[in-house]
Amino acid sequence: MIAFWYLLILAPFIAIPVLWWNYRRKLAQKEELSGMRWERLVNTAGVDEAPAPAAPAATPEYRRRERLLDAGQTLVYLLLKQGMPDHEILVNVALADLLDSPAGNGGAGSGQPQRLPAQHRVDFVVCSKAMQPVVAVDLLAAEAPAALTTAPDFKSQCLHRAGIRHVRLVRGALPARRDIRACVLGS
Question: Can you tell me the mean pLDDT for 3-31?
Answer without folding.
Answer: 90
